Amino acid sequence: MKLRSSTVLLTGASGGIGHALAREFAARGARLLLNGRDSARLGTLSVELRNGGAEVNVLPADLTGIEGIERLAHAALSGGTPDLVVHCADSFSVGCLETTSADEISRLWQTNVIAPSLLTRALLPSLRKQGRGRIVFVGSIFGSLGLPMYATYSATKFALRGLAEALRRELDGSGIGITYVAPRCSHTQLDDRRPERGPAARTDKTTRVAVRIADAIERDRRELYFGFGERCFVRLNAWFPWLVDRSLRAQTRRMRKFEPAIAGPQH
Ligand SMILES: NC(=O)c1ccc[n+]([C@@H]2O[C@H](COP(=O)([O-])OP(=O)(O)OC[C@H]3O[C@@H](n4cnc5c(N)ncnc54)[C@H](OP(=O)(O)O)[C@@H]3O)[C@@H](O)[C@H]2O)c1
C-alpha cells in the first residue's frame, strides 16, 4: 500500500519509535490519527507535523481499559475507516518473575496484547467492508527469543507475534494485510529502562527504524526483523534452544546484580 493520502491510526505516538513513525508517515503524505496518553506530547508533535503540512488529529486514550479502547475505535472511525493501523504502544518491564508485581504483569498483558486484540476487533468490521487495509503489530526480537529477566515482556511479545500470524491467515483474501515488526534496541524511554541488552544487541536510531517500517508497509511485507545477529540468534534458538540456554547463562548472572533480593511474590 502507498502511504500517500492514506489515513493512519498510530498508537504509542507519544513514545520514541511512535514519534519517529508519525514524522515518517507525515513526510510520506499520510493523514494521521495519533494515540497515546500524554496529551501534551501528542499536542506538541501534532503542531510540528501540521506546520510541515500534514493533516493530524490527536486521539488520547488509555488502552489499559476497555472504555479507552472503545472510545479510541469510535473516534478513529468517526472520520471514515483508516487505511493503516499501527499498534506501537507498549508497557515494558524487566526483572525476575517472582519480584514482578501482579499489577505490573496485568498492565503488560493489557497494553501489549489485550489492547491491540480489542482495538483490531473493533476496527475489523469497517476494514472488511472497505475491503483493503493493513494492520501493523510492533513486537520485538524478544517475541521470538525468551530472555531471562524479561519473562513477562517476552511472553506478551510472543503472544503478539502469535496474534499477528493467526490473523494474517484468518484475513487471507479479505484485502487486509498484516505486518509483524520485530525491532531490536532503539534509543527510547523503553531502552533507558533496560539494565543490559540482549545477545548480539546493537542499537538502531528511531528515525532509521521508522524508515524501515514505512518501507515494509509500502512493500506489503508480512514481517520485518531488525539486525542480522538478532535474526541468527532467533533461528539458532528455534533449532538449538539448549545452545542458547548455555550462552545466556553468563548474561543471567550479570543481570541478577540489578535485581533486588528475591523474597517471594509481591502484590
Ligand atoms: N525501544 C526499543 O529498544 C524497542 C525494542 C524492541 C521493540 N520495541 C517496541 O517498539 C514499540 C515502541 O517502543 P518505544 O521504545 O517507542 O516505547 P516508549 O518510548 O516507551 O513509548 C511507549 C508508548 O506506548 C504508549 N502507552 C503505554 N501505555 C499506554 C496505555 N496504557 N495507553 C495508551 N498508550 C500507552 C506511551 O504513551 P504515553 O507516553 O503517552 O503514556 C508511548 O507512546 C513497542 O511496541 C516496543 O515493545 C522497542
List keywords for this structure.
267 residues; alpha/beta; Rossmann fold; 7-stranded parallel beta sheet; disordered C terminus; binds NADP nicotinamide-adenine-dinucleotide phosphate; KR_dom; oxidoreductase
List the helices and strands and how they pair.
Blueprint: E1 7-10, H1 16-27, E2 31-34, H2 39-51, E3 56-58, H3 66-78, E4 84-87, H4 102-130, E5 133-138, H5 151-170, E6 176-182, H6 189-192, H7 206-218, E7 223-225, H8 228-239, H9 241-256
Parallel strand pairs: 1-2, 1-4, 2-3, 4-5, 5-6, 6-7
NADP nicotinamide-adenine-dinucleotide phosphate binds at residues 12-18, 36-38, 62-64, 88-91, 111, 138, 140, 183-186, 188-191.
GO molecular function, one term: oxidoreductase activity
Family: Belongs to the short-chain dehydrogenases/reductases (SDR) family.
Domain Ketoreductase: 6-188
The order of strands across the largest sheet is 3-2-1-4-5-6-7
Rg computed from alpha carbons, rounded to a whole number of angstroms? 18 Å
What is the distance, rounded to the nearest whole angstrom, between the alpha carbons of the first and last residues?
Answer: 46 Å
Characterize the main sheet: 7 strands, parallel
Bound molecules: NADP nicotinamide-adenine-dinucleotide phosphate
Helical residue percent band: 40-55%
| Order of SSEs | EHEHEHEHEHEHHEHH
Count every helix, treating DSSP H or I runs of 4 or more residues as helices: 9
Task: State the name of the first-level CATH class.
Answer: Alpha Beta
| CATH architectural arrangement | 3-Layer(aba) Sandwich
The strand count comes to 7
Q: Report the structural category.
A: alpha/beta
